[in-house]
Write a structure and sequence with these properties.
Ribosomal Protein S5, domain 2, five-stranded antiparallel sheet
């Protein structure tokens, strides 16, 4: 749900960093590391800011890797809001040969957390069976690239309902491209939203800081779900978008003179408000920095 770029300070540290990250990932199934194919950067991803701070600290202490670390980034997702139907046609002429693929696709949202479901409902021999796996492959590739802002597209069912082929010119890769074109068009008709990770947050604070703590949580787009008393302190339960919780430990300590504490863990993904979505898209396009 959160990621950051990491790079060794020296060329000699590249191999040590790779070995260290691999071992840490083997020990901790909630920690992931991968290479960004667009930038070539090594990315580390985990369950929160503190989680990644611990990973970086272990990398430096246990594996003697000196590294530069980027700013934490929230792992957003994209999803569709309704149903859509569209076709994708890929038709090219390369020299004396043609390339052709054609798919008609229907999309609809599915239960949160279910990922992606592909169903083939193309009638008869409209598209030969050997091209169906290529349609699925094209869809999966398009899902990872996203549509609105380049974030992975999740919780969607795609049903191939029709299509056509050319006996000579049709190829598997042509159907992959046609499927990705159909997916983008159908999802735009269905309506798209960016989703953000939402955290369950529990704050334990003395009575006299309650107002300041709740006001700060509200300012972070938090939703207070409950309050209770535990001995001589107040317990506030709240759901807050992760994007607003960076450096919360320091801010909470400052507002309560170090007397309040909090715990935080992942709850679910939820669509961001429209104005926040616009800000995220503009940031991705480089129009300004959040």
């Amino acid at each position: 749900i959160i990621s950051m770029a990491i790079e060794p300070k020296t060329k000699a540290g590249q191999d040590k960093m790779g070995i260290g990250l691999q071992k840490l990932a083997e020990e901790d199934p909630t920690f992931k590391t991968y290479t960004n194919t667009d930038t070539g950067q090594t990315i580390i991803a985990g369950m929160g800011e503190l989680h990644l701070e611990i990973i970086v600290d272990r990398l430096m202490r246990e594996f003697k890797v000196e590294a530069n670390v980027g700013k934490p980034q929230v792992s957003y997702r994209e999803t569709i809001l309704g149903k859509g139907r569209a076709e994708g046609k890929f038709e090219r002429q390369v020299g004396n040969h043609g390339i052709f693929g054609h798919v008609v696709l229907e999309v609809e949202p599915i239960e949160r957390g279910k990922g992606f479901v592909f169903e083939n409902a193309i009638p008869g021999d409209n598209v030969p069976k050997e091209f169906i796996p290529h349609i699925g492959k094209g869809l999966e590739g398009a899902l990872t690239r996203g549509i609105v802002a380049g974030f992975p597209l999740v919780d969607i069912k795609a049903r191939a309902v029709d299509g056509s082929f050319h006996e000579v010119d049709s190829t598997g890769p042509a159907f992959e491209v046609a499927a990705s074109i159909a997916l983008e068009a159908a999802c735009k008709l269905a309506g798209l939203a960016i989703m953000e990770p939402v955290m369950n947050v529990e704050v334990v604070t003395p009575d006299n800081y309650m107002g300041d703590v709740i006001g700060d949580l509200n300012a972070r787009r938090g939703n207070v779900t409950g309050m209770s008393q535990r001995r001589n302190v107040q317990v506030i339960d709240c759901q807050v978008p992760l994007a607003t919780m960076f450096k919360y430990t320091t801010d909470l300590r400052s507002k309560t003179q170090g007397r309040a504490t909090h715990t935080m863990h992942f709850s679910h993904y939820a669509p961001v408000p429209a104005n926040i979505q616009d800000e995220i898209i503009r940031k991705i396009r480089g129009e300004y920095t959040l």
